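ugh ok fine here u go
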Amino acid sequence: MQVPDLRAHNTTYDWRMLFMLVLMALGSGRTNVLAIAQWVEDQRDWLLAQGFGRRAGGKALPAQATLYRFVWALEQQVTALEEALKAWALEVLKVLDPAHPGQMVVNLDGKYLKGSARRGWGIRLCCWSVLIWDS
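structure:
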């Protein structure tokens, strides 16, 4: 299952690419959209070398406003994101223990990141952790 892209069809940046940029920045310790945008700018050369850029192979990376709109759009479909994460976790369980799928305990916890709310829009980034162990 995928989280649908609810943006207009004439978008410049691929939905999955924006998702990857946000996840990489969060993994690098950035805690709000401004910090994520700064991380993207700081990593510009490396990101472009890896193929992160406009769909048409351009050399531009998303600006802060684009990242805000992406997070806002993602927040509007939390249920789809939750279902996609559940489906992913089940696939991981099948790979980790094919003889006993579903026999492991999985805890999924989410926390809003401090400073990630944007006045007027109500955007808040959420960090997820997944713990898996045998029951």
